[in-house]
Fold this protein.
Amino acid sequence: MQKEFIVASGKARLAGVEAGAEDALRLPVVFLHAGVADRRMWQAQLDAFAPRHRVVAYDRRGFGATRGQPETFSHIDDLLALLDRLDIDQAALVGCSQGARIAIDFALTHPGRAAGLFLVAPAVTGAPSPEAFPPAVEALLEMLEEAEEEEDLDRINLLEAWMWLDGPDCEEGRVGGAIRALFLTMNATALHAPDPGPETNPAAFPAAYARLADLKLPAQVLWGDADFPHIQQRCVHLVQAIPRALGTVVPGAAHLPGLEQPEAFNRHLRAFLDGL
C-alpha cells in the first residue's frame, strides 16, 4: 500500500508517495518525473517494483501537490533533504527528461548517495541547444511559441501533449485514452502553478555535460525512437560519454516511454536494478 508523505525543504513542502518493504538487502528506488508531468507518471512503476524494492516518487516545486513560497532554491538540495528525511543513505535514481537532469546533477554533487542512474530521454545541464529542427517539428514549435505569446495555457497543454506524448513528428493524438487524459491533467497542474522561484545549482551548473565521464556508477540511458531528434542524439552521446552506461531504444515511443509502454519500460528497468 502506498503511503503519502510531506518533506520540508526551505519554504517548500515536497509531496510524495512511497511503498514497499524497507529491505536492507535491496536498494531503494527514487523516481524523478519529467517537466510535463508529476509523480503520477510513475504509477505503473511504483506498482511493479514495490514488491521487491522500497519505491519513492515525489512532486518537485511547481508540480503536482507540492506547495511552497517563492524563493531561490536547488532541486539538488530538495532531493538531498528528501533522502535524509526518509533515511535513505543510497538509492537508484530513475529520472525522465528534467528529472534525469536532476539525477545526473545530484550524482555529480553527492556521488555517494546514488547507486545507479536510469536516465530516460535525459535533459543535461549545459548541453548544447539544437541548431535546427526538421520542418514538421519546426512548425509545431512555432505553434507552441505563438500559444505562449498569447498565454493560452489550454492550447499550450494540447501542443505539449502532441510534442512530448505523441512525438513531434507524429500525428497528434497518436496516444489517447487514459494516458492522454493523465498527461493533460498533470501538465495543466504545472502550467497553472505559481512560480516557485529561480533555480540555482552552482555545484553542477553549467558543467554537467562536460563532466559526464566523472559519473563512475552504473547507468542506463533509455529513449524512444519517436522523440525529438536532438534528444535521441544526446542520448547516444551520453552512452558514449558515461563510462559504465548502456543504451536502450524503445521502438514506437516518444518522450515518456514509462507512461506509454510501461511493460517494456519495466522490463528494462528490472534488468538494470537486478544488475545493481
